[in-house]
Each structure stands twice: as structure tokens, then as C-alpha cells.
Amino acid sequence: MQSIQPVPTDMQDVEAQNVTGQNPQLEQHQLVLEWDHLCYSIKDKAILSDVSGTVSSGEMLAVMGPSGAGKSTILDILAQRAHPTSGKMTINGNETIDMSSLGSYVEQNDALLGVLSVRETIQFAARLSLDPSTPREVIEERVSETITGLGLSEVSSNRIGNAVQRGISGGQKRRVTIGSSLVTRPKILLLDEPTSGLDSRTSREVLLAIRNIAIEHNMIVIASIHQPNWETISLFDKLLLLAQGRTMYAGPVDKLDSYVAQVLERPVALHANPTDHALDLVNTDFFSDATEGKNHINELASRWKAHESGFDSGRNTLEIGRSDAEKAVDPIHAWSQERRVAKQSLRRAFHQTWILIERNILNYSRNLLAYGVRLGMYLGMGVLLATVWVNLAPTSAKINDRLSVHFFSVAFLGFMSVAGIPAFLEERQVFMRERLNGLYGPGAYVIANSVCTLPYLFVCAAIFAVLCYWSIGLHPGATEFFKFLAILVLAVYAAESQSAVVAAALPIFVAALAVASFLNGFWMCVGGYFIKAVNLPRFWYFWAHFIDYQTYAFDLLVVNDFRGLVFDCQTLADGSCQCDYPSSLVSQGICQIRGDDVLNALGIGGINFGLYIGILIAITLVFRILLYVVLVFKKR
Ligand SMILES: Nc1ncnc2c1ncn2[C@@H]1O[C@H](COP(=O)(O)OP(=O)(O)OP(=O)(O)O)[C@@H](O)[C@H]1O
């Protein structure tokens, strides 16, 4: 048994010892992860029944079993992504575990940003996980070691790939996801199907690389794995074999064949792979009778139970004899707590926000599908308005056409924010993976997203405004033009923030698209253009109209354009003057109408420009806060 090291009490001590954020004193400290009698059910259906096991630092445990055996479920529980119905899990005897500060979980799906290269992806993961003071060379060395170990050197500068740009293969993506976790040097690495999509040679090489890093850095590795060849499974120290959520075997890999031969009385044939043989034995998927299958599993599970006590299942004896007091001051426990505190430090939060901003800039500038196509769309919209509403004469007859320019600008630009949902969902998946692995929190993510979205939307709105403002003939003057642009930017930013909230809460593209589109249609109806605000049914007027970003943006655009302009009215054959809105000039013998008369007729003549801008900003802020709140509570 290893001696227990003194606990570093001061955070500075920990940092001073190692700039990488790892504590070398503790790096070699033995960790024992133990789970006892775990049960997990969903709606009375037992998914896992009485599963126990243990694994120590430097060891690799394989979780195997037929499809639906409960492999992902046990990994979810060990990663604290699911809570067992009963049973407990401990680390060095302590039940208070914070897996996000100790471990990293590689789930089955590869959540990656398609436009980043392999090296960039792993580099960002390393930078996000390490202390801000870590020197570049240390990061680069670690990234290179991970890339080489996972056999990704040849494709290290290739992009991951997305729907428009083909990138690396599925198996290589799997390795990049593993690399993104491995490079953070967790003390416990959990991998769900790390070898799916890999051929047997690559599977072995990847697991060998993981094993080497695990041994060097004294990590615990637990991986679910399908049909490995004997060479590959031999890289693991232990095996947990499940079927229908029951334990079929839990012990050293090299004792599996003797177990099946002596206890199950089904020896492995000469030259056959013992794991294939054991998997065949516990697979009841193709039994014609379900009861027969259940009975078979009951029989195998009870044989395991009967022999478990007398069998050397590799249970670690580190904890035996340790008092509760000793467990309470376990250095790993203290280190995990300190690491959590360090992660919450303001300095680290700033550092991570900055890295996320850097990554977003790369993502947004390269993502042709998500951002380039949208830029093109705003350009097209600008050209459309410029040519359809070209040279709008300053006459009373054209006042409604003029109003429609402002409505259309706000409504259409706002509506098209739904085009940002796919890119947001891609980003959200990466955020969820990194956040659940304890790299950073929703605060850093929301700030980085908010900061990077703004300049992009500014460019979109500017392209649109430059193209259409002068050709339509809106209010002459640079001040009015820049106000027009500023209002559009605020409106599009509010709409974009709304779409982000919807997609954060409903991370299914079609559903998010439907809800965000409905909301934008709803805001159009109650904004005061189709039906004058004062004529809206009271039910809508008193709440929906006033929380609608389109209300404020439309009113502001109209006031900005109309205030100070004068429009010619029509002189009829009988010499009378006809204006489309009541004019204060006609009574003075001038057949014209002032823009302010129109504003008064619309009921927006007296609005406070600054206040409306403030409200528009406040609506956006509310959406951004909602985005944060949704991400705090949504764990998937
Ligand atoms: N949310 C859920 N609701 C109902 N049943 C579930 C749920 N999650 C898992 N299950 C069931 O629990 C069982 C174990 O699922 P799990 O995903 O852990 O299996 P697995 O061994 O990882 O399978 P595979 O190898 O096919 O990925 C399956 O029968 C599955 O249908």
C-alpha cells in the first residue's frame, strides 16, 4: 500500500509545484474507484442489478456484454451522469465524489467543431483544461504526445469536416474525441465504445496508446468495448462482463478462461478467443423463448454470485483498515476539492472565456455553411429591397411603402436568425461534452458566444444597410444611416439571442426551428404594423406587444426615418389636397404632410429614442440571461 502524502492546504502551493495544474505529489497517488451493489431502474424496468466492481490507478477495465447489456448505463453512473437507484460508489472510501474534477467521459457520439483541424481541437481542449500559467511548450508537448499516441500525426492539420467539407474519417473523429479527453490528463478516463469505427489493428494501437498514457500518469481507464480480439483485450487488466444488466464476470482478464471452464463448465476451445466465447455464452438475443433466455442469465448470474466471494476478482485492499478519519483527509479528495475551487477562480474563468472567444472566431470565420451562407443571404436581402423599393418618392402615396421597408427589414432579418440554429446546435454539443467533463461552465460559454456573435451580426446588418438604404432613398444624412444600422444590429442580435435560447432548451433542429419561427411570426403579428398597436386586442396589447423586440425596432426605424421629412400630398382635380394621413400643413395651405404628422397618426410621435434603444438592449440581455439559465439546468 502506498503511503498517504500530506495534503497541500494552500492553493498556491499546488500551483507552484507544477505549472500544468497537476500536482506531482498526487499524480502517483493511488486511487481506488469502487462501486457496490449498484442497481438502476427506469419505470420499474431493471437496467442494472447488483453490479459491483473495483479498479485502481494505472489499471484498465473493459466493460463488455451483448447489445443492451447495460454497458453505457454503468459508464453513465460511474461518470455521475446518471444516479443509481441503489448502491454506492466510492473513491478511496469517500462517497463524496466530484467526477467532473477527477474524470473525463468520452461518450458514444463525437461532438466536434467541423472546421477546426485535429491539432487545433486537441490544443483547445488542453488549453481549456490547464492552468492559465502553463507555458506554451508544455501544452504543445502534451498535444503532440497525444496526437502521436493516437496515430493522428498524418492528419493533424486536416479539418474534422462537416456537411459541406469532407474531413477525416469516422474512426479518426473517434480518436480526436478520445484525444480531447486524454490531453486533459484526467485521473479517471471513461470511454464508451472508444474503438467503434476502428479496424482491429487501429483499435489495438489506440488502446495501447491510452494504456501507455494511463500507466505513465497513473490513470484509471474504464472502457466499454465490442468484440475485441485477444491481443486487444489483453491490454486490459480487468473485465466486467454484463448481460441483461447482471454481472456475468468481474475480475482479471487472464482468469476469464479458467472461470468459464471451471465454474460454467464450458471450456474455451483451443485457439478460440475467451472473450468471444464468453460473449456467446451470455448472449440470449437469439433465444426463441424469452423465458428460457431469462432463466439462462439467472443461472449464469447466480453462478457468478456463488463464486464471487471465493474468486480473486481483483478487489483492491487499499482501503481495508483505513479509518473514516483517514479517508476524510485523503489527499485525492482534498485535491479534487481544491481543483474545483481553482476551476471556479475568476482568473481561470477569464482565461477560459478568452480561449472560447478565440475558438469561436476561428469557427465563425471558417464555417462557410453556417456563417458564409447567411452572409450571402443578408446580401441577397439587401439587393432585393434595393431593387424592389428602388427610389421611393417622398410622397404621401408612398408612405405605406416606406413603412413596409422598415417592417420588412426588422421582420425578415429577425426571422432569418433561425438559420443560425444548426451552427448553435453544433457548438452546444461541444459545450455539453466539455462542460460535463468539468472544463468550463455556462458563464464562460455564454459570454464567449455573446461577444463573438455581435461583430458577425454587425457585418450582416451593415451589408444589408449599405446595399438598400441609399437606393431606397431613406432619410438622407449619415446620422440617420448609422442609427438605421445600429437599430438593425440590435434587432438582429435580439432575434439571434432568442433563437439561441430556444435551441438551448430544445436541442433538436426541427423542433427548435419550428418554435423559433413561430415566435418570430408571433412577434410580427403583435408588433403594431399589420394592426396598429392601439387597435390590437387588449389581451395581446398589454403584454405581447410590449415584450416584442420587433415593436421597438420597428418604431425606432420609423421614427428615425420619418422625423424631419416632409412628403408631398396629392392635389386633386377640384384643387383640394389629399394626404394619406392627417396633415398639420394642409390647414396652412401647404399640400404636404410632415413625417411627424405620420408618426403622431401611428401613435409613436412621442417615443423616447434612448428609452426604446435601452428596452431593445434589455430584451437582448434577458434572452442572454435566459440562455445562461437554460444551460445551467439542461445537462444534455
Ligand atoms: N432512458 C431509457 N428508457 C428506457 N430504457 C432504457 C433507457 N436507457 C437505457 N435503456 C435500456 O437499458 C438497457 C441497457 O442500455 P445500455 O445503453 O446501457 O446498453 P449497452 O450495453 O450500452 O448497449 P449497446 O452496446 O447496444 O450500446 C437497454 O435495454 C436499453 O433499452
Largest sheet report:
6 strands, mixed
Q: What helical percentage do the residues reach?
A: 40-55%
Rounded Rg: 32 Å
What's the structural domain tally? Answer: 2
Mean pLDDT across the residues is: 88
What gap, in angstroms, lies between the N and C termini? 40 Å
Number of strands: 13
Q: Classify the beta-strand content into a percent band.
A: 5-15%
Tag the structure with descriptive keywords.
54% helix, 636 residues, 26 helices, alpha/beta, disordered N terminus, 2 domains, Rossmann fold, binds adenosine-5'-triphosphate
Overview of the structural elements:
- The protein is α/β, with parallel strands linked by helices.
- It has 2 domains: 11-24 and 31-109 and 189-326, Rossmann fold (3-Layer(aba) Sandwich), CATH 3.40.50.300; 346-633, no CATH class.
- 54% of the residues lie in helices and 11% in strands.
- The chain has helices at residues 11-17, 24-27, 71-78, 99-102, 118-129, 136-149, 170-182, 200-216, 230-233, 256-262, 274-282, 290-308, 324-328, 331-343, 346-366, 368-388, 399-415, 421-436, 442-472, 478-505, 509-526, 538-541, 544-547, 549-562, 595-602, 609-633, and strands spanning 32-42, 45-56, 60-64, 86-91, 103-106, 188-192, 220-224, 238-243, 246-252, 566-568, 570-571, 577-578, 592-594.
- A 6-stranded mixed beta sheet has the order 5-6-7-3-8-9, with helices on both faces. It has a 3-stranded antiparallel beta sheet with strand order 2-1-4, covered by helices on one side. Strands 10-13 form a two-stranded antiparallel sheet.
- Helix 19 packs antiparallel against helix 20.
- The longest helix is centred in the last third of the chain and has 31 residues, at 442-472.
- Bound molecules: adenosine-5'-triphosphate (ATP).
- Adenosine-5'-triphosphate binds next to helix 3.
- This is P-loop containing nucleoside triphosphate hydrolase protein.
- The chain crosses the membrane at residues 368-392, 404-425, 446-472, 478-495, 502-531, 609-633.
- Its main location: membrane.
